Amino acid sequence: MANDLRAAALDSKAWPFEEARKLLKRYPDGAPEKGYVLFETGYGPSGLPHIGTFNEVLRTTMVRHAFEALSDVPTRLIAFSDDMDGLRKVPDNVPNQEMLRAHLGKPLTQVPDPFGKFESFAHHNNAMLRDFLDRFGFEYEFLSATECYTSGRFDAALKDILRHYDAIMGVMLPTLRKERQATYSPVLPISEKSGIVLQVPVEVVDAEQGLVRFEDEGETVVQSILGGKAKLQWKVDWAMRWVALGVDYEMAGKDLIDSVTQSGKIARVLGVRPPEGFNYEMFLDEKGEKISKSKGNGLSLEQWLTYGPEESLAFYAYREPKKAKSLHMGVIPRAVDDYRQFRAAYPAQPIEQKLGNPVHHIHNGQVPAATLPISFGLLLNLVGVLGEADEAQVWGYLANYVPDASAEAYPELARLIGHALAYHRDFVAPTLVRRKPDAKEAAALKELDDKLAALGEDADAEAIQNEVYEIGKAHFGKEALRDWFKALYETLLGSSQGPRMGSFIKLYGVANSRRLIAEALA
What we know:
The chain is mostly helical and 522 residues long. Among the domains are: 1-151, HUPs (Rossmann fold), CATH 3.40.50; 175-232; 376-431; 439-521, Orthogonal Bundle (Arc Repressor Mutant, subunit A). The protein has 24 helices and twelve strands. It has helices spanning 2-11, 15-26, 51-70, 97-101, 121-135, 145-150, 155-163, 165-172, 178-183, 234-245, 257-269, 301-307, 310-318, 332-345, 351-356, 358-362, 376-386, 391-398, 411-428, 439-455, 461-476, 481-493, 501-508, 510-521; strands at residues 37-43, 75-81, 141-144, 187-189, 203-206, 211-216, 219-224, 230-232, 252-253, 279-280, 283-284, 325-326. It has a three-stranded parallel β-sheet with strand order 1-2-3. Strand 1, helix 3 (51-70) and strand 2 form a beta-alpha-beta unit. Helix 17 (376-386) packs across helix 19 (411-428) and helix 21 (461-476) crosses helix 22. The longest helix is centred in the first third of the chain and has 20 residues, at 51-70. The chain is elongated. The model has no long low-confidence stretch (mean pLDDT 93).
């Protein structure tokens, strides 16, 4: 089986396998000198972890697992925190903002924690990042920029930066505006007077000793850049990190294409091949605008996980990463049900199709065997007609549709009910408006009521669906059946879209559905 999987993975067009094959080409003779392939994701701890952090670690993990299916070379994944960055602005969503303003410009690990829980703001956000990644079961190693700089781990690479200082300036200066060129330096010394990360021109004094000269508050200073006494400008820092750590794979958002290009050039100046990777597209809000943390548009991780399970978010993140996608409340139900359909199809698929199925990558081939007996869309429609329902009431109705319906028998369904109740309460309920049927629709509804009365409570969903279909053909014609279903949704459910009506009526109950029809006709 393992050999079959590897053979199929070598030809699979699923994007994680396409990415993983880049690493096979990078090391055609097996493991690199360091003995493993290193994947990296980066995080800026000036703010709290968010949905983009989840997506990047998830997608990188998918490529890592795909590589492990193709090769026996060991792998590692580093989650790197850029916590030596100077605090540029005070975030809107933290307390003690006045206190933070007094520390602008200092490395984030030297800025007090506004929450008063950790030794610094960076330590607070790093702890949140680790809790965040652990919550989803990611396998990773955490690395702090401050720790790497201050421990001397980056010292050899920093000396190399000074040795190639002019060549690095040659890469960077053409990309900058004239005013910026005058003050730009790849090296940002940390002032021994103020503790601030300085944006000043520097002159290399002795590359082998790591010494540079610069102006600090009107005084000319010669200072080492080793041992945490300086950090590097962003694009140079990224390249130095690739070199110092031996990074083989790192992906980035489309907004960082220029950074990837310049950092790649700098890595080559330092004599190292840049890592493999690709640039994913950004998420958009429902107006098609780029999501911005400062604007607060789009959807947070907490919001998604209130209204849908994490597998649905992973499913949404997996699909078409190079295509811009909307990220708003309205995409959640579809993602939940698409995930469910792909998972249901997985067991019967041949190996080639399995490897192209998103659920294979979401679960690293360990796809849960249990099936979900009802769609999220149908659950939402049930909750919609119930109004102010609780979980016990929903389980009561589910007994019409699902044998032995209980949280113990269907734990995943229990989670979905919680999501459906929350989604309905916060997002659907305010939009539901049942309209009155016109004369033609009323006649069809009256006939449907008569047919349901004849069928009785024990009728199965398929028999009910057949009657719904035949009544629609009789009253609307086969070509206009869509108008009939739209009328059912709008007059009975208060929505322009809805479920397969046979399934819904079976779930809600024939008597209850006849009551809905009576209310519409009243």
